[in-house]
Amino acid sequence: MGATLSSCAMRAMNRLRVSGVSMCRVLGTRALFASGAADAAVQTTATRERWLEEELAWCECHRRENFFAKSLGRHVTYDGSADAFDARYPELTRALTSEARDAVHAELASELMRRETRFEDARRRKAHISANYAPLHRELFDSDFETREREFVDARWTELARTAKEATAAAYAAARGGGKGGEVDARRRFLDAAEPLGTIRESPRGVFTFPALTPTLCRLLREELDHFERSGMPRARPNTMNDDGVLLHELGLCENLLDPLLREYIAPMARALYHPRAVPGCDTLDHHRSFSVSYDATTAAGKDADLAYHFDDAEVTINVCVSPREAFDGGELLFGGVEGEAGSSHARRCPRFHREGVAVMHAGKHCHEAMATTEGRRTNLIAWCRSLARRAETCGMCGRDKRTPYVVPGRREGD
Q1: Predicted TM-score of the model (pTM)
Q2: CA distances from 255 to 41, 129, 143, 270, 287 (A)
Q3: Which residues are CB-neighbours of 113 under 8 A, at least 6 positions away?
Q4: Which of 61, 80, 159, 368 could staple 398 via S-S, CB 3.0–4.6 A?
Q5: First and final CA of the chain: distance in angstroms?
Q6: d(CA 248, CA 265)
Q7: How many whole angstroms separate alpha carbon 140 and alpha carbon 150?
Q8: Orientation angle between helical segments 215-231 and 145-152, nearest 10 degrees
């Protein structure tokens, strides 16, 4: 499936081509750069696949920062040295028994090892799944998106996406004629046009909820994910904080399902709703890291009940509950401040409640947490939506300009 990139993204792609990046994937399109020539047709399943995440998201901060220690319930900085960690966090380690301190060190060392080998491990898992997994619902993998769009996408989201595209086009046309700035006017035009529809709500500011996926797609996804979990296929943690979930690129759900959703629905709405000065890259979203997460009221090993306060490695995040409301209790999302804002903004919390098929869209840097699921089991589909143009120059996590040297951070609000 092809994709049209913005001129900004194309410039970033050209920089990668010059710098020797061997392969990248944008909206399901794979491009092999060899001696400056593109030839995706020669690829085979044995080809060493390199992902945008590997080439663009990588920064030295990934080896040191944002290690979530479950045993401590917080993010820390860790460079592989237990002694350096104890010296950095004496208030955390001093009160621990030697056995508890050793357990923390082991947890952090295990996460560092996972980060060092995660891309090679992911390629190996994806190849194994592709060769050996028998899907329960083949239509999720093989069907052309357009043939299933009405069955999978809530008609109200289709209308919202169409309205967003029209509002953005009108706003930028007006800006070229000397009117108000395109990004500011696009938001106003979109929300004004969407108000009569009664299908999108903003609360708190910058966090939007709207109907997105049909009950049919939610059911198919739940059943497919349960089937995959029972299959015994290899799978990894979906992110550094969750244990229970599936990386959907490895499962094979991107090209005919998630990539079109980003291109036709998520990206147009993000461009209309956010301003690139406040949410850098929101206007050039072109790839994603998508995964499922499940929360379970039981305390079994490998299960999650809640999620601590954090921000996402994304320009824009979309989070859709795929479980029916009667299947669980609790688990509401609580939104606080934006990463980098004054501490007082993080003291307040605004709740958003999960409903089947309803999306919550927010800036990746808008900090949030998930309260405990108190009954049953809840599964959500999450897409961390990213911009090639932004990440070619700026680290998505620490915000470092990649043209400048990495500096080991001092103690920060999140440490």
Answers
A1: 0.84
A2: 16, 15, 10, 20, 11
A3: none
A4: 61
A5: 42
A6: 18
A7: 14
A8: 110
